[in-house]
Prior knowledge:
single chain; alpha+beta; eight-stranded mixed β-sheet; two-stranded parallel sheet; globular
Amino acid sequence: HIMCDKPLGLNAKDARAMLAAVEQVCVRHAYGSTSCLAPACVYARQLLAEGLIGPVHGIESIDHFNVSPLSPYSWIYELELGGGLLNNLFTHKLGQALLITGGAVREVAGEARPLFDYAPLGEPIHDFRNFFTQTVEPDQTTQWRAVNADMAYTVLARIQMPQGHQARALFTSSGRAACRNAGYLAFYGECGSLHLSGPNAPDRVEHFDPARGEWQELP
């Protein structure tokens, strides 16, 4: 078994060759979208399976955060080191949607956008959580390195539901947008909506019941 949360410093050509090689000898391969195992996600899966909101026809995954353009250069800014939001955030968001619904992707389109051209060199980031707070105060001696990784994405997908129909899904994120409300993952069904909010692993679940016309937080 080969399990890598991020590419092993490979370029696209080498990555495709590695994928072809492991598939040829039937080696299992995967990326680790571990946040889909958050308790709120597992609970939401149970609620959908029990028919709380009926058949799901729409999915939204929205997550914006404001990264300083003076955040020090690190692997997240370089595609060949496994950087970019599409590689590192979208994989988790897609994993959440698929685990909760039990669905499978049938069609997908979208774009990944670079937001920074250069990043300053500074103290290395060892704890990735510091990426969102650590900055460099540039001066005449500051060195800058080119950025080639995406820091925003918009993805549209058709997801096959276990019941046989397809749901439309929107995934969008930006590293240069301050969102008024926390990021969320929402499921829209024929009999209501289910809303998960919080950081990368959501910790709040709310249900909208059309009959009552109100939201209820589920413990």
